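QA checklist item 7 of 12: single-chain prediction sanity check.
[x] sequence parsed
[x] length recorded as 873
[x] structure emitted
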Amino acid sequence: MISSTQIRKTFFDFFASKQHHIVESAPMVIKNDPTLMFTNAGMNQFKDIFIGHIPVKYPRIADTQKCLRVSGKHNDLEEVGHDTYHHTMFEMLGNWSFGDYFKKEAIEYAWELLTEIYKIPKENLYVTVFEGDRKDNTSKDMEAYDLWKEIIPEDRILFGNKKDNFWEMGDTGPCGPCSEIHVDIRSAEEKAKIPGRDLVNQDHPQVIEIWNLVFMQFNRMANGSLVELPAKHVDTGMGFERLCMVVQGKQSNYDTDVFQPIIQEIAKLCKQTYGKDLKADIAMRVIADHLRAVSFAIADGQLPSNNKAGYVIRRILRRAVRYGYTFLNFRDPFMCKLVPLLCKEMGEQFKELKAQQELITKVIAEEESAFLRTLESGMRLLDQIMTKAKSKNQTKISGHDAFVAYDTYGFPFDLTDLILKENGLTVSLEDFEKELNQQKERSRSAAAVETDDWVRVHQGEETNFVGYDEMSCETKILKYRKVSAKNKTYFQLVLDHTPFYAESGGQVGDRGVLIDSENNQTAIFDTKKEGNLMVHLCTELPEKPEQIFMAQIDIDARLATACNHSATHLMHHALRTVLGTHVEQKGSLVRPEGLRFDFSHFQKVTDEEIRQVEKIVNAQIRKCFPLIESRNLPLGKAQEKGALMLFGEKYGDEVRVIEMGESAELCGGTHVLNSGQLGFFKIISEGAIAAGVRRIEAISAETVENYWFGLQDSFKELQEVFKSANLKQAVLKTVQDNDELKKQLGAFMEQRKQQLKQYLLSRAEQINNVLLIEMPDEHVLPEIIKGLAVDLRKETPNLIFIAKSVQNDRSSITLTLGDDLVKAGYNANTLIKEAAKFIDGSGGGQPFSATISGTKIDGFADAIAYLKGELLK
């Protein structure tokens, strides 16, 4: 059997022989595209070429692209594990032509590779072509049809509608008709019953699409119309896992050598046999799939979190843990044990996995541990819900309660439903789905962005960035468009020349103004990147967009940002010097106010280590090292220099290297010309943000000056408060005095408690073999009442102690029972909660002692009467 590794290599070799340049996969996590969190198609990294924002370097390209489909239009999550061919993370093999060949060559290459190289039987293949669409005024793709009928019988060519055979990357942008290749891998007996052509695009697990050839020839405008692209492109995508299934003669992607090593390891860990139980099999498939998605995301720099892309990764990981918990009986972290095998299987093609193996393992282990604890909390929540329902003789819980379990604790509905059925209860699926859909709608509304079509002002596509050398420049607006998002409206401007740095690499975008010939100013409040396009954001358009402007950045903000970016580089080098070369950047934020730096390290950075880092950075500042900038340096030369490269970033053939002192990094941000401009550097905080990832916040230059001024002012104020120049001695004396006063107060309260106890015992009533002690209304501190209750309970097995305490506008009642009453079945917690209804209160405690508080003062007598009545009857 040909291995998956050989299948991938064969694809590369074939297209290399057809003069295609083989490129590496782009990161799965997307950083400079506000419309996407993850790469969900092979074309994502070439989007700017399709829309003309960057020039074509290689007219023919082939690659394998890491993709993730878990949200939005392309969402395969719920099918994963249940069928044979859907995945969250998958590889998309693709070949591309940018204005070079078109339909003829694309079809011929695909057919040759599938039938002559991979030896897929021709009689098992079907193809589809676009049937046209009246609304779009597009006709049948007869060009593709005529090309196909030269190599395949016409009864195997099917017409498909816009849904299946017209590919679009979004609501707007490049698009075009596509031709899908489908394969029928059913048995001869099944084929004899129903012809394969009747099952194409019918979601049959053995009659599936294997390759999609997209012919990019249109651009979808914001108004829905189609405009011909100036150059026609080819964009093809073939699912690697599906291809392996077909070539290896399997009936499921999960039966190939892409997944089987991991699945067999899962089976070994849970001591079950794959293929024996459907639910267990689904769980193993889910875990194997999700392990890949989470590991690749972490390797590309995306850690699990509660926000945006990090939240998606956390939800995927938790889904896998839930399946393992429910169907494989895992109670301890298990996914982290699979990481070494995954890295062994896929680490040769995707080297970032091996390089980040330790971090991936630690992050997944901590996430698993935390979620397993959460699952236990969720079980307790369900227990409370079930107890409440049964106490009211209900047989059905609300969909709202099930949704809370799902949304707060990650409990899937089927797990909640299963647990409820085991306890004789049911739940409303309709109400649950209603709550879920309402949440999805809120999320969609919050994330909705509407963009108008670009309005062309001057010819040109590329922006010439001059911000490394200039703070201002003459410019003109090439195009603009209106954007509406989150109830706000603003405009995006594209300039032909700009000094404005667009947010990327952790550095915030520049702000500033556009000044026209009449000195009218248009404020630019931010600058961002959309792919390779630099967009300048403003709330109002210039009155005359067609004229020439002076683009001027906020110089003070830029300089402060540059100081913090250079400080980040110096600190990164210092951290690697002090802590070790395992330290790698995992995220950063550089802005005028300061810097934030996330890095891999597996324990707390000590105070002494922080001081060492600060000393190294400040020493390099004092040495006034000049900035050494190498622009357009070949990537190989940069590597020879020892420049640090970040995992999760895709670099071009030429890069920019920033050197300052002993630091050398690939970087596209802005920096000071000399390390001396930083003045001083100070770390403000250090802490953990995830397993194996620490975060430092620091400041430099003028911000440090203001920080020291603030400390000096606080120091002087404290000297005045303590009326002493020796502040340390004054604080120590105050602490000592405070400790002495606490001792004296404790002794007084103990004396007061004993006096009160003797007084209460003298007024105790013996009723029905129990000793009732009722404390009269008094302003007694809760701490004293608690101490009294403990002492009295130790001394009196048949005790009933009821105490009322008045504190400001809220009063409380404490009920304490001796061991004899608890053994007899009385429960202070249950009784006190019932009494709370009389005072509009709340509270609780243990079976032997509990407290409630409330504001309905005139109900306290009734509450106490209720307690006495229940206990003394």
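[x] summary fact logged: The longest helix spans residues 727-762.
[ ] second reviewer sign-off
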